[in-house]
Each structure stands twice: as C-alpha cells, then as structure tokens.
Amino acid sequence: MTKSDEFQLAGPTPNPWFATLPRYEPGRPLEEVARELGVDGIDEIVKLASNENALGPSPKAVAAMQAVAGRMHLYPDGDAFYLREALAQKLDIPATHILPGNGSNELIELLGHVFLDQDSEIVMSQYAFVIYKLVALLFNARTITVPASGFGHDLEAMRAAITPRTKLVFIANPNNPTGTQVDAGALDRFVADIPEHVCVVLDEAYVDLLLPGQQPASVSYVRAGRPVCILRTFSKGYGLAGLRVGYAIGQPEFLHWLNRARQPFNVNYMAQTAAIAALADDAHLAASRQMVRSGLAQLTAGLEKLGMAYVPSVANFLLVKVGAGREVFAALQQQQVIVRPLDGYGLPEYVRVTVGRAEENVKFLKALAAVMAERRDLEPA
Length: 381
Ligand SMILES: *Cc1c(COP(=O)(O)O)cnc(C)c1O
Hints:
Layout: H1 3-7, H2 30-37, E1 46-47, H3 59-68, H4 81-91, E2 98-101, H5 104-115, E3 121-125, H6 131-138, E4 142-146, H7 155-161, E5 166-172, H8 184-192, E6 199-203, H9 218-223, E7 228-233, E8 246-249, H10 252-261, H11 269-279, H12 282-305, E9 310-311, E10 317-321, H13 325-334, E11 337-338, E12 340-341, E13 350-354, H14 358-378
Parallel strand pairs: 1-11, 3-4, 3-5, 5-6, 6-7
Antiparallel strand pairs: 2-8, 7-8, 9-10, 10-13, 12-13
This protein binds pyridoxal-5'-phosphate.
Pyridoxal-5'-phosphate is lined by residues 51, 103-105, 129, 172, 176, 203, 205, 233, 235-236, 241, 246.
C-alpha cells in the first residue's frame, strides 16, 4: 500500500496516476535541522543545500521591500508591467516576450498545464533537474530520459529521442545538480534543427552567476523566432529565493498560452518590487559572481587536499563524490552543515554542496574531513 492509499479514507477518488506520484525532496530548512539537533538559534548551522545566494538579497531590494511593506493590503499588478519593462530593457527584447512566474518552477508547471497529457512526452537528460519529470508525472505524460554524456547533456542523442508525441525538450544550462554547461556550438545546431511540433525549454536558473563570456546566446534564439522558451529566476544570482519570482522569455504567441494557464496574481507585490530593485543593483550581482568564483576555487582546492573527487562546475554548487551519499549527508548534518543527498537523481555516491561565503566553505571542508576520517576508521580493514 502506498502512502496516498492510506489517506484515501473517503471522498472522491483521485486521478489514478496520483497514487504513485513522488514528492520533490527539498533542501532541509535551517529551523527544522536546528530543532532536530536541539540547538537554539539557526546561526550556528550552515545551509549549503539549495544553491541559494550566500551573500543574501541585494540591499537595494531589501530597502524597496521595506518601503512597500505598508501597501500589502493591495493586490499586485497582475501583468507585472514594471517588472516586465525592467527585464525588457536589461535583455534588449520587447516586454511582450517576457512572462513572470511564481518562481521558474511555476512556469515549468504552466508548461505542463498547457502542453502535457497522457498522450504526450517530454525529453530530458539523465541527471538533469528532477522537477521536469515530476511535472510530466503530474500530468500523466511520459518522460524520455536520455543517458548523460559524462555528467552533461548529450544533445545529439536528445535530438534522436524526439518522437511525434514529444512536446517539450528540457535543457538545464548550467544543469543542476551536475554544474555542467552545454557546448555553445552544439546548442546552436540543436536549436536550428528542432522539429516544428517541439519547444526547447532552456532552463537558465544559474545564468546570472556566469561571467559574461560564459553566458549562452539563448536570447538571440528568441529574437530569431526559434521555438525556444528560456526560463530564468531571481532565486539564485539575485538572492531572492524566498520571494518566488522567475520569468520566461519566448515568442508572444507561445507565452500567450502560459498566460492563460496562470493565476491572475501569480507574482506577488513584494516579489515584483524586490525583483525590479535587484535588477538595478549591478554591484550586488558582481559581488555574488565574485563570491562564487572564489568559493569554487576554495572548495575544489580543499577537496583536492582531501583527495576527494568532484565534478567540475560552472555554477554555485559542486557534486562531491563521498561514497555513501545519504550517510555522509546525515553525518554532516550532525556537524551542523546541511548539504543535499542525490540518491533521488541516481547519484547515490555523491552529495551536492552549494558554494557559500569563505567561512561557510571552511566549515564545510572541516566537517567533511572529520566525517570522512571517521568513516575510514569504521571501515573493515
Ligand atoms: C533553482 C532552480 C530553479 C529555480 O527555481 P525557482 O522556482 O525559480 O526558485 C529552476 N531550475 C533549476 C535547474 C534550478 O536549479
């Protein structure tokens, strides 16, 4: 008997595919771990589990939120006019090509609402962001998972996996949880060759943290009228994960459908206000990029010193090979460091650690060294 069966005491029968629907396993909240460890505050605990921006939100965004706090009795602008205008200016694309969402996760779900049913398929890569598959399951659609190449996307194999039933192809670039980036030329060829009945969803949650020279030329695909939908977010580079705001960039005729499926006030007033202010704070974004670049160097040097393998990453997190991932995750948590186990991704030997501030990275490396030393001592000779 599954969990959902147990709850089925009375009332209408859920859609049959809901009986086996898995839940997303998020990073553990600080407060929950503090309760469990019996420590008073959350300040002692380092959360490197959800790829949040360790510098926090832009001070300009914080000030803008404080300034509008007294106006929260009002509904937000349902069309997010000023946010779309600010993004349009930043991206050099008309505001008609932009649709904000309650996090980019909402936009992924809206894609499901509009395009997926029991007769349709999505194509994604092994080890790619698991939400794509969960949304496909939500709409009873089929997921074609294409074997990874190394830890990254094999775009040629993904092209070959497209069938007449394929509606959406998801490419996470950079990918979470592997930190890999697709080759720019290979992506150009992939987008040029996509059949007419398919939309390529380019999930670029981490793009703002890349150096300008590393960033994909994806907006040019939209300008050229290609069938792509770019997803971006304020959760990572802009440090506003708690507010839930992301956006899609695509053809107006395509976004029209997502616009039909969304709630009228899907992006809240506070989120719109903070996002506009954050977009204007180039200094904070530059500092965030700098922290990620130096933090990656610090973490990889530390791991090499410990003789531990990792997957080279361009994003603000790192896959570290630890052996029994879930056990090491639990042991690190006892040391007040929260990382992410990855057995759900078919990567049971790894944990994913978010790049933190220098002192947080030190705490992680120390805790990891202690945990790994203890595990070696426990191993049978
Ligand atoms: C974090 C992340 C997102 C962002 O989700 P939001 O709903 O905008 O917070 C989207 N895609 C990937 C691959 C991510 O890692």
